Amino acid sequence: MWHPREQNDELTLTLPVEEDGTYRLAFTVARTPNSGAMEITLDDALLEFGEEARIDLRQPYRHLLRTVYTGTLQLEKGSHLLTLKNISEDTNQEIGIDFIWVQKRE
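The structure assignment produced for this chain is given below.
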């Protein structure tokens, strides 16, 4: 669980890719009453989930894990920078990422 202190705080992770190819990324996220909203970039390119770049994690009455998917991405072998950006206006929010899948597409 990430607890950003203010709007626009960022958390950067290294994402390894084992071979060149077509991929999609899947993020299993926590949706809770205390969850905020985020945007995610990969190597400084804003990722989209469906037609939205913003991922609103707030779920007012329950605690859930849900998976959101990017479209297909062309990735080269090596390390990539994945940056989560808190875009919540409320500074008392949390961002929960359970795990990230790097899924090779055929």
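Interim note for the steering committee: The longest strand covers residues 21-31. The chain has one domain: 10-104.
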